[in-house]
Specification:
Elements lengths: L3 E8 L31 H12 L3 E5 H10 L7 H9 L2 E4 L11 E4 L3 H10 L5 E4 L2 H9 L5 E7 L17 E10 L5 E10 L8
Parallel strand pairs: 1-5, 1-6, 2-3, 2-5, 3-4
Antiparallel strand pairs: 6-8, 7-8
Length: about 200
């Protein structure tokens, strides 16, 4: 049985919207697209990215993130460490409406998304990696489909924008399983869900 693993870039106040550039998501009049660029990851975190890319994985993406990736990675001439595995691996795209994906080896998931994702998890295939895809992550959290979360926290607050843990997030305990801090103050942390939170609950 494979895992669903998310990777999210967030600010200290939890904003995950458009970290890579203004064109990613300006919805709601978000004025800070590209906020991540001011904070280089540093050598330690770059090695973590290399570790990710060397492992077998398949992608699970929301439609908006898929459109951004599909317009960039097939044409990429730099960052080939990321581009090559992204272009060759299977890509599952969760969408409100059925469409025919143009990016090679991509498949649309629509309709009863939760049931289809549960079936995908039961397959003996590489883990499913989620990047960005804020709306999809809310669905995954609500239905307890996430096995592991990589959260990259940047030392900045924005005060506005879509958040990783949005309104309606369930009360859950998380267990920290890995962490690194870069010289620029970026914190990489890996969490696994550890059961529902109650006022008297404890995690080991």
């Amino acid at each position: 049985m494979r895992k669903i693993i998310t990777t999210t870039f967030v600010t200290l106040d939890g904003v995950m919207q458009a970290p890579g550039g203004p064109e990613e998501d300006a919805s709601g009049g978000f004025p800070y697209g590209g906020w991540q660029i001011s904070f280089p990851s540093g050598e330690k975190l770059e090695s973590k990215i290399g570790e990710f890319m060397s492992a077998p994985f398949e992608l699970l993406l929301g439609k908006k993130t898929y459109d951004i990736f599909a317009s960039y990675w097939p044409k990429a001439t730099t960052d080939l460490e990321v581009a090559n595995p992204f272009n060759t691996t299977k890509k599952y795209v969760v969408s409100h409406h059925s469409f025919e994906p143009a990016w090679s080896n991509s498949f649309c998931i629509t309709g009863d998304v939760v049931m289809q994702l549960q079936k995908l998890k039961e397959e003996d295939e590489p883990d499913l990696w989620v990047y960005g895809s804020g709306n999809l992550i809310q669905t995954l959290l609500q239905n307890e489909l996430i096995d592991r979360m990589h959260v990259w926290t940047y030392p900045i607050t924005l005060g506005t924008g879509k958040k990783l843990f949005a309104e309606g997030t369930q009360a859950e305990n998380f267990k920290l399983v890995d962490s690194i801090v870069s010289t620029t103050g970026v914190i990489f942390a890996t969490y696994e869900l550890a059961g529902p939170f109650t006022p008297d609950s404890k995690t080991s």
